[in-house]
Amino acid sequence: MDTAAAAAELTALRADRAALAERVVQPWWYDVLLGLLVFLFLGSYATHDWWLIGGAGVLFAVGLWGLTLVYRRLTGMWVSGLRPGPTQRAMTVWFWCCVTWGGAALLDLAVGLPWLVVGASAGCAVAVVFVSRWWTRIYVAELRGEL
Fold first, then answer.
1. Cα–Cα distance measured from residue 122 to residue 116, given in angstroms and rounded to the nearest whole number
2. Residue 88: which domain range?
3. Which pLDDT value is given to residue 1?
């Protein structure tokens, strides 16, 4: 392969990655629905009613499945949030949000503070909206070769 052909192929690959970077950004409502699902599921633990928690778990699973289908239909692909690379920073923040929620849930069980679980659930819901957007921005920058 000559230098000119290799350069042309690299240019085409860069153009494909730039187009992909534009295509992978989810609509704003996707993140809002994800946050709502997280709040309903995590917040259900404040009720201490296993039927409600189970129902919220089913709703959460179906909602995530639906969001995945919609994302795949909109973008034509799916990227795991747990993929290695720079996006792990966002996932680390999300992990610590979940740890914080777990601490609130344990305090509720020990002392009886359901409002703390509701508050932590609301915090996790807001956090997942912003972490999802942040994760996407990191991934787009990675596709564009900016990282």
1. 10
2. 13-143
3. 67
Rounded CA-CA distance 93/90 in Å is: 5
Q: Is the pTM of this model over 0.85?
A: yes
User: Three-state secondary structure along the chain?
Assistant: CCHHHHHHHHHHHHHHHHHHHHHCCCCHHHHHHHHHHHHHHHHHHHHCCHHHHHHHHHHHHHHHHHHHHHHHHHHCCCCCCCCCCCCHHHHHHHHHHHHHHHHHHHHHHHHCCHHHHHHHHHHHHHHHHHHHHHHHHHHHHHHCCCC
Domain count, the chain: 1
Tokens describing residue 28: 């704003």
Does 8 map to a domain?
no
Lowest-pLDDT choice from 14-18, 63-67, 126-130, 140-144:
14-18
What is the overall mean pLDDT for the chain? 93
Domain membership of residue 2 (yes or no) is no
Return the structure tokens found at 60: 């959460």
Cα–Cα distance, 75 to 2 (Å, whole number)? 35
Give pLDDT tens digits for 102-128. Answer: 999 999 999 999 999 999 999 999 999
pLDDT attached to residue 91: 96
